[in-house]
C-alpha cells in the first residue's frame, strides 16, 4: 500500500491520522472515482484497534484542549479556515474526483462554506456567554463545559462540508474528535487532518479513522470514552448507532434522510416554481434536503409540467469537472442500481416516466420525473437519493398540506406561492426542520438545522450546536458561608 497517492495532482495521505501521526492498517479498501470508475488508491481499512487508539488519543488530548483559553481555540480554528482557503482549489478538485459532485459548486459554494464553518463557530464561541440567575440570594451560574471526545460519522454526498459542520463546533466547544468519513469519499478528511496540523491544532485533538462503518462503527459508537456521537447518514444506520450508543447512553445527534415536498400553488410565479423544481436534481439528486415530491395545484399542473420538461431538457449531464455540466454521476454503481430499482418498481406499479426513467450508462442516471404515483407507494414514501422526482396534483390547500406531511420524514419543505397569507398558513402546518418559501437551500449558520420524525434527532447551528457539544453546568452559590462573612 502507498502511504500517499496523487489525486488530480494533489498528494493525499491514505492512512489514518491518530494522535498527530499517520498510522497505517494492514488491510486496505479501494477508493474509486465515480466519474469514470478509475481507481484512486488503496485506503487504510480501519479495525477496532485503530478506533481504540484514536479514542485514546482523543481522551489524552482532551484536558489540555478543554483548558485552552477560548480566544486561543478560536485563533487556531481561524488558522484552519485560512488553510482551507489556501488549499481551496486542491480540496475542490479532490472532492469532485472522489464523490462526483460539480467542481464549480465545490469551488464557489462548498469549500468557501467549509472555511466559513470554522470561522463561524470560532466567532460564536467568543460570543457564547454564561448566564446568571438569582434565587433567594443564591447565584445560579450556567456555564458551557466541553463534553469530551466526540465521534463524528459522515456520509459521502457532501463529505467535507458535512464533516466540518460537526468538527468546527465540536472543537470550538473544547472537545476532541474522532472523525470517520464515508468509505466512498474518504480523501478530503485526510487533507483536513493535514490542514489542521499545519494550523497548529495540537496532536490528538482531531483524529481521522478511515474504514467501513460495518466494520468499525460499533467500536466507535459503543466506546465508553466517547461523550458525544454526531451522525449524518441514513435511517437504518442511525438505528444501529442508537442501539450501540445505548450501552453508555452516549448523547446522539442524528441528521438523516428525507422525502421533502415542493408545494406549487396556482398563485405562484410558475417560472420560479419550475426553477425550484429543476434545482432538485443538484448533485444528481444526492441531497438529503432535496424536494423530491412535487405537489402541484391541479389547475396549473399541465403548464408547470410543460415548462419543467422544457427546462430539464436543457440540463447537461456529464463530467462534473466540466464547468458546463449541471448533473454529474451517481456516487457508485451500487447506488445507481438502487435508484434504478426504485424507478423500475414504480413504473411496474403504474407510474409514468415523463422524462428519464433509466440509467445513461453504468454511472449516470437520467434526470427523471414520474407521474401517476400513489401516495402510499414506495416511490412517494421512501428516499431514493438520486435524480428522481415524483409529481402529484392537489385540489385544495388542505389536500396539499395533508400530502406534504404524509411520510415518515420531516427534514424540509418548500412552498411556491404568491400569497403571503397562504404562505403563513401553510408553513405553520408543515412538519419539517426547514421550510423555504419561494427559495431553496439558503440558510444562515446561526439558524437551527435538523429534521423532525425519522429525519433526525436534535438541531445544530449557532447556539444549538454548542448545546449539543457542551455539558451545561449550573453552579449555585449561597450568599453565606464565606470566611469573611461578606
Ligand atoms: P450511510 O448511513 O450508509 O453511511 C453514513 C456513514 O455511516 C458512513 O460513514 C458509513 O461508513 C457509516 N456507517 C455505516 N454503518 C455504520 C455503523 N453500523 N455504525 C457506525 N457508522 C456506520 O449513509 P450514506 O449512504 O453514506 O449517506 C446517504 C444518507 O445520508 C441519505 O439517507 C441522506 O439523506 C443522508 N444525509 C442526511 C443529511 C442531513 O443533514 N440530514 C445530509 C446528507 C446526507
Describe this structure in words.
It is a single chain. By secondary structure, the chain is α/β, with parallel strands linked by helices. It folds into two domains: 4-256 and 451-474, Aldehyde Dehydrogenase, Chain A, domain 1 (3-Layer(aba) Sandwich), CATH 3.40.605; 261-437, Aldehyde Dehydrogenase, Chain A, domain 2 (3-Layer(aba) Sandwich). The protein is built from 15 helices and 22 strands. It has helices at 48-67, 70-86, 88-99, 103-127, 159-172, 187-198, 213-221, 235-245, 270-278, 301-313, 333-348, 378-381, 397-405, 420-429, 462-469, and strands at residues 4-7, 10-13, 16-18, 21-23, 28-32, 39-44, 131-135, 138-146, 149-153, 176-180, 206-208, 228-232, 252-255, 260-264, 291-297, 352-355, 368-371, 388-394, 412-416, 434-437, 456-457, 470-477. The strands form six sheets. A seven-stranded mixed β-sheet has the order 16-17-18-15-14-19-20, with helices on both faces. A six-stranded mixed β-sheet has the order 11-10-9-12-13-21, sandwiched between helices. The longest helix is centred in the first third of the chain and has 25 residues, at 103-127. It starts with a strand and ends in a 9-residue tail after the last strand. Belongs to the aldehyde dehydrogenase family. One of its GO terms (molecular function) is oxidoreductase activity, acting on the aldehyde or oxo group of donors, NAD or NADP as acceptor.
